[in-house]
């Protein structure tokens, strides 16, 4: 059996970001799956400039090498988990920029949203659901809203994250059911 691949996209690039800690924890929990491989995709490493492609993404006529590499990377995955904090009742601009670079590459890919913040990030999920619906992605029924405070220590955040382990198990099952 060919193993399906799901990218865990780290949707924040700010210094001292919590997103990488959340993504690392998520990957550890999800690697219990024997059917799906989960990889971290860090937008800080992808390093896309603010949208600089002259043509609309749905044409797929990319002139910049970074965009072509981003397109190939997204196409190589069967689904995605977007991990991002809630910023001012929305989601980070770097995540929107990365999504907006592409068009058809996102179509029909199952996606889950994992947000975090003092209240778990519900407003960020509401805003992102409009985007994934417009891009014809397939929203999964399991989307985590994790309550973390900015001043939580790494150890405190780890303890809080582990209270969501059963929800992550459901997320893994949702991807397995969607992809097979």
UniProtKB/TrEMBL annotation:
GO cellular component: cytosol
Residue ranges of every copy of the NADPH-dependent FMN reductase-like domain listed in the record: 5-142
One Pfam assignment: FMN_red
GO molecular function: FMN binding; oxidoreductase activity
InterPro entries: Flavoprotein-like_sf, FMN_Rdtase-like_dom, NAD(P)H-dep_reductase
Coiled coil spans: none
Protein's name according to its UniProt entry: NAD(P)H-dependent oxidoreductase
Higher taxonomy: Bacteria, Bacillati, Bacillota, Bacilli, Lactobacillales
